[in-house]
Amino acid sequence: MTRRRAGIRPRSRARIRARGSPATHSPAPILRLEAAAALVGRLRRSTAPGGRGRGRRPVVVLANGLFDLAHVGHLRYLGGARRLGDFLIVAVNDDRSARRLRGPGRPLVAAADRARLVAAVRGVDAVVLFGGSTVARVIRRLRPDVHCKGTDYAPATVPEADLVRSLGGVVKVAGDAKQHATTDLIRRIAAAGTGRPRRS
Q: What pTM value is reported for the model?
């Protein structure tokens, strides 16, 4: 499912410049959940006291969502999530769970393509696809230090908040105010197609 399934990619690699060219950026790997858990385990062991790293435990952040019709709100959410820690994993709903959550006709973009788009966002370190109505199974396997949700939630309303805290993590909210939504984009596109004036 991914070109690179293992290894921790140094963040400095994205800043390597060819002579006279802009900095390059490699997409994050798209991993199965077990491979992502193994990657997090290696990351934590390599920087644990007594390991080869600098001795500081990295802060692993988990964000999640459908990311159907990517928009600027998604970018701001992911950027805010990345600033909360050292390593950002993004869990993307698979097609079946997206359909259960959003209804017939969704998602508009297949899971594999949505995962590729998220993986291409600078600051994302790994992507996993998941099913289910919540991201609880991913949380249990990855045990993130921070579970980050968008501003349509408050920390107290995140469905998995108790689970995150029971595993030693914290729940945070990031991104801009909920002024962007895929559902709104779909309505605007539909209105444009019928020639009806859209509401501002």
A: 0.78
Q: Is residue 3 part of a domain?
A: no
The residue type of 118 is V
Dump pLDDT digits (tens) for 31-67: 999 999 999 999 999 876 655 555 688 999 999 999 9
- The range of the structural domain enclosing residue 141 comes to 24-194
Domain count, the chain: 1
Q: For residue 83, tell me if it sits in a domain.
A: yes
Q: Which residue has the higher pLDDT, 194 or 180?
A: 194
Query: Measured at the alpha carbon of residue 170, what is the angle toward residues 172 and 182, in degrees to the nearest 5?
Result: 35
Alpha-carbon distance values, 87 to 9, 62, 82, 111 (Å): 11, 9, 7, 22
Q: How far is CA 190 from CA 105, 109, 198, in A?
A: 13, 16, 9
- CATH code for the domain in which residue 108 is found: 3.40.50.620
